[in-house]
Structure formats: structure tokens, C-alpha cells
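FAQ: What does the model actually see?

It sees only this:
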Amino acid sequence: MSVVASTPSLPTAGSIEPVRRMLAAVRRRARLWIWVESLAWLALVAAAAFWLTLLFDWWVEPPVAVRLTALALTAGAIAWIVALKLVARLRAPLSDASLALVVERHDARFGDSISTAISLADRPPDAGDTGAPCDPDLAARTTAAAAALAGSVRLGGLFRGRRLAALAVAAVASLATIGALAATRGDVAGLWLRRMTRLSDEPWPRRVRLAIEGFEDGRRLVARGSDVEIVVRVRADGPLPDLVELRTRSPDGWQSRRMGTLGGVGPDGQTFVHTLTGVGGDLEFEVRGGDGRLTGLRLVVAEAPALAGLTIEYEPPAYLGTGFRPTAASRVVRVPRGSRVRITCTSTKPLAEAVLTARDAAVAGTAGAMVADPEALAGDVAPESSAPSRVLASLGATETAPDSGDRLTLEGEIPALDGDVAVSLDLRDTDGLSNRQPIQFLVIPVLDEPPQVAMTPRGMPAAITGAGRLLLVGTIGDDRALAEAAVQLRREAAKGTDGIESDGPPGEGDRSADDTVRLPIPGVREGALVAEFTTDSPHEVVLAPLALTPGERLACTVTARDRCTLDGAAQEGRGETWSLEVVTPEALRALLEAREILLRRRFESAIDDLSQARERLASPTSAVPDEDAFVVDPVVACAETAARTAGEAADVAEAFRTIHLELATNDLLTPEVEERLIRQIAAPLAAVASRDLPDLERACRDATPSAVVQRADVALERLRAILARMIELESYNQLVERLRDVIRLQEQIRAETLEEQKRRGRALLQRP
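And it is asked to produce this:
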């Protein structure tokens, strides 16, 4: 048996046409589905971008760069959807074979008939035996079966219609929300459009409105290291926010600080403040309160103007010399009263304005806040004062350009300083910054004090004769310069007392100024600061030219004048006024002799004390109780007595020298009297006080009681010898006094005799 091979017959065009029409319908439906889905996604992405950018922009109000980034991300998402969801899918080929597989997968009735019919229909006619063997009848039946079912294909079942419908509804709804916003709040949509597309900085309308003070275009220039107070005014259409935050940006991120309230709620809202201390660099920050936002704020730090140098010179009054003299720049500047003060200030940077003002510090009641370093001449706290300030002459800022490099120098003067003046310097540079701390210092006038006079008569005499002399010792000085000095002598009526000091100046009361004699002191040179008169070179005042009479009193005052004439006349300084009684030579001798008697009795008492101490040393068993009932060692008691006796002896010796001086200054000293007073009493007594008695005191500490007794005997022997001379002098004085009485009696008898002779002569002449 032979098998005859036959070529399979392909489906005709008429038999496959229903299938192809069905696949074409599927192709159109697929492309529509792609368009609908892509447009829905585009609508959703656009709506999401709109609402997200709207909320973000309203909440944050970002800068332009952030908004540009958001627009770029939105455009990128839209481009991605168009490229991948629409263009790429539309460009993908939808062949009949592929679509046949899709239909067969969703409709089990077809089996593989559609794909088989399409593959047989698309087979080339010249394929010959190269293809797989195919039964023509089977191919025809398959094609007919596919064509028969092609008209009953449900195209909606081939696609996920519900998902597409939900996506489309969501897209329409999202677009509807945008349309509703545009219809109901066109201002909001328009503002979003302007901010996102035109990149406008117009702020969003808010319920809470914030306004910050001192910022221009979101920037504020501040001085480096200064404390910056941030003041925010808050208003609201409803309740004010309880919390306002200041958010600053640092390298570590954003930091929030709660701002405090200032005052109460007023018609204009509530004020919130916060102080940023020690701002050392540029600082970005923002303020938030409720739904209010202030963003993009920035503090720009610059160096504040400061004092680079300060020079203070003064020209003293004419009586102190001419020409300006420098003085140290310090917190308190002291210059002579009446000086002309010149102040020169140099700033650290170019200035727009600088003012140097002065205020009467006596009225202000403050010395200001000052430092000694000119580079830091600033007070920590500006003094509060109601004293009026005045701009010193020529110290206002008359030019804004620096006159030397990058600095500006100001110069001004205080014409005549008569009181404390507080000077302050205010600087403002071209950036509008002022000096961070007030630059202040105090100029104080140093008063010219009157001359100081410390002159006393040597020996401090209480009485003097008309032919005597005064020896004045002490110092005369002035803080600036002396002009002259003089001794004023005034004759007074007798007071009936021996008072030494009188507080009244010459010429007071009912006394005539003609009774005052003014004697210049040549030892005071004009312009000198100090004139000193020692015991070796005292100033001598001769009283003989005054023709003083016994019974009067003489008031002596030393005066001095300086060269200060600021108050019209020179200042005068006065020393103490000493009142001396004018007596006869005999009366002065009697006064001095009475003083000698008192000195002798004082000396006798000292000798008795030392003698008793010596007796206690000789009897060691005897105890010496002191005032507090304590037992004192006789040696210790002797040492104390020796020290007291030495002091008494020295005082008595000096008193005898004073008596010698008074006799000498009144021309009553004879060689015999000088011999007794100095060589026989004062000199030996001073020697015992300086040598023997101190040796006895030292022996009480170092030697044995027997040696101390010997020392005491030697000292007592010399003291008693001096006392004997005093007693002889007293006897001599008594003898002299008796002779004086005899002479006075003889003079009286002689006067009475002459008077009797005159009486008898007149009687004889009257006889008839």
C-alpha cells in the first residue's frame, strides 16, 4: 500500500476574518485601557503633587530652591508615567497571536482554536513540507470553530475593568478636589500658583500673624559678641497661641527655644521676646506660633565700631603755665581746675556718625562705667540720669569719610573745666552698627587748695618783752605754687590771763585794722612748693620796732598766699594764732624763776622715786605690791623707775633750755645765767638722762642686784649734785629778789622824799 502525501489546505480569508475582527476589537480596547489608566495615573500624581506641595508650602513656606525641587520631582514623576505607562505601552506591538493567547486565557471555550487558526492563517504559502504535517479538515474545523465563537467574546472580561474604573474615579475625584478648591478658595489656589510656578515669596494667609522687629528683607545686622533681643508681635483672628518658638539652625541641626511674653495682651496683640546671648557668627532662624510662620530669617554678624585710641590733653590756667600737657587716659581723669581739656578719639572703622557729649556729673550723680585701657574704654552699664547732655564744641560728626586710612578721628574741647564732667562717645558706622557698650570717662577738676601753714614760735613762750624776738619754726607749703608769706602781728588789750591760743583772726571785733602789722617772710620764694624753717634756721621776728608796752597782748599769725586767682583773688592759708603777754624784763624773769621752782620740785619727786627703788633693791625680802595686788620684783620695779626718771630728767633738761631760749630772745641772758642754766643744769641733766639712767635700766635686766645697787648709787649721786645746783640757784634768785625789793624800797623812799621836798617848796612859795 502506498501513501500519497498531500499539501494541507490553509484557512481561507473568509473563514478567518471573524477571528481577525474580534482580535482587532481587542487591540482597540487594550489601547483605550492604556490611555485611560495612564491619564488616571497622571491625574492622581498631579493632584497628589498639588496637595502635597500646597500643604508643605503652607506649613513650611520653604525658600525658592525647595519649591523648585518639589516642582522638579513632580515633573519627573509625570514624565516617568508618560514614558513608561503610556508611550512605552502604546509602542509595544499587539500581534494577533499575542491577543489570541490573551483571549484563550480568559475564555476556556476557545481552547487553542484561535491561536491555531491565526498561526495557520499566517503561515506562508510556500512553506511546503518544511512545516509540520496538518490535517486540512482538522484545520478547517478549528478555524470554523474559532470564527463561530469570535462573535460571543466578552471584551470587558479581558481587562480589569473594576480596577480601571476605580482608578478613573479616583483620578476624577482628585481633580474635582482641585476644582472645588479653585472654585471656593480661588485666592488659595492662585497663591499656590504664584508661589509654585512664578516662585513668588508672597506669604500664605494665616489665622496667626507674626511680625518681627528690626529685620529688613529677613536680615538684621548685629555686632559680634552682642546680645540680640528678638521681638515678635503676634496677632490672631481668634485666640492667641500660647507657645511661640524660636528655631535656630546650627551645625548640629535645628534647636527650639520658647519665647517669653512681654507685657500683657493689648489691642495690637501680644509681644514675645527672646535674647540670643553672645552672637559670635551668622545665624539662621525662624519663628513659629500657631499656624503663623516667619522663615528665612538671618542674623548677619559684623564688627561694631570701637575706640582705637584716646588722647586727653589739658592746658592749665595761666598762673600754672601755658601749653597743652598730656595726661593718662583712664576711667577717671583729673586735671587742674580751670584747665582747657582737649579730647582726641580714634575709631576702629569708618563711621557714619560720631558724637562726643558731656554731662554735668554733679547733677548726674554718677561717674559712669569706665576702664583704664583705651581699647576697652567702655562701661558695662550706661548710667541712668536725667541730667541734660550737651554736645561738646566741634565734636559732632561733621564728615562721614575717614580721614586716615580706615579710621575716623574726632577732636573736641571742654573750654574751662569747673566741675565734674562725664564724657561719653557714641559711634555709628556705615553699616548702622553702634558701639556695643557706652564709651564713658569722667573728667574731674583738681581744686587748688589754699596754702598749708604749720608755723609755731620756738619754745612756745607765754610772755615776751617789748624788745624781744620771736623765732618761728615749721613749714609753709602749697599743692601748686606759693606766692608769698607773712607774719601778722596784732596788738590787743590785756586779757588778764596767760592764754596761749586765740581763734580770732587779726582785725576782728572792735579792733582796728591799724593795730595789725604785716611782716613778709623772705624765706618763702615765689613759685616754691614748700618753705621749711628748722630750729637751726628759724624765721626771726624782731618786736622792738612795734614799741610794745607792758600790759598789752600780742597776737601772732603766719599767713601764706598762692597764685590761684580763679575766684578773683589769691587763696590764703592761715596758721594758728598765738597770743603772748607783753611784760617787763623783771616780770619775765620772775615768771621764769617761778617755772624753775616748779621744775625743781618735779625733779625732786623723780629723785625720791629712784631712791625708794634703790632702797628696795638693798632689801630683797621686801615685796613691792602693785595697784592690782600683784607682787613685783624689786629689780623690775627699779628698771621701770629708772626709765621714768630718765624721761623726767630729759623733759626737765629741755625745759631749762627753753628758759635759756626765752632769756636769750628777750636780751636778758648774761654769761653767768647761761653758765648756770646750760652747763651746770641742762647739759649734766641731759647726760644723766641719756647715759647713766639707761645704763641702770639695762643693768636691771642683765646684772646682779649688787651691781644694780652700785649703778643706782652713781645715778643718784649725779642727780643730787644737779639738784644742789638748782637749790643754789633758787637761793641766789631769792637773794636777787630781796635786792630788788630793797631797790624798789629805795626808789619809793626817794620818790616820796622828792615829793615832800616839792610840797614844802610850794608851801614856802605860797607864804605871804
